[in-house]
Amino acid sequence: MKILSIEDDRRDKDRSRLTMDDGSIYPCHKELIVRMHLKTGMEFDEASLRDMVSADEKLRAKDDAFTFLERGYKTLEEVRRKLSAKGYDEDTIGSVSGLLEEYRMVDDERYARLYSNEKIRKAGVLKIRHDLQAKGVDKETIEVAIGSMSPDAERESCRSQAAKKLELLKKRESDQWKLRSKLYGFLVNKGFSRDTVSAVLRELLTDDEIDLD
């Protein structure tokens, strides 16, 4: 089998179309054309053709991964899921994943640390832990990231969220116990631990002269 022609893909500036002498057409990344020194008249056996198709698949997957990462920092598992959803096989996904890790384009330890320090401003440790697990970060990495935060970070965040919500609730709720119950549920739903919520509410509501006893 020979390459009859190599033409640019009008829909993708990074790709070309290889037309073989048997009429078959193979999309091909331009980087691969340079790497393999592809040109018209070059002959291919079945093994060489399979290698070319496999190499092209990995380059396409790499481009898709880069595009996905341009939208924001992601975990390795999020990238793997994205590539899987696009139909790439496990071998291709594994190859691209290794490349991304090698060049530190994905770094779950850094991601978990940045995510924890950002989200603790509005949510508790329980939610942060749950969200990172959902993103595919392993438990050990999550605990290290959470442990790197200030010991008072969750308490301070909980108190800040509670104070803001309390001001809103006080405008429409006069019953002290209903107010406390609604505030408690609000904070627990944000992922703050029950112990932290109870301690903050006792402090905050006492400050507002609401008797909890």
From TrEMBL:
All residue ranges annotated as the RecX second three-helical domain in the record: 107-145
UniProt domain RecX third three-helical: residue ranges: 154-201
Top-level taxon in the UniProt lineage: Bacteria
InterPro entries xrefs: RecX_HTH_1st, RecX_HTH_2nd, RecX_HTH_3rd, Regulatory_RecX, WH-like_DNA-bd_sf
Residues covered by the RecX first three-helical domain: 61-95
Compartment(s): Cytoplasm
Family: Belongs to the RecX family.
PANTHER family (alphabetical): REGULATORY PROTEIN RECX FAMILY PROTEIN (PTHR33602)
Purpose: Modulates RecA activity.
Entry protein name: Regulatory protein RecX
Gene transcribed to yield this protein: recX
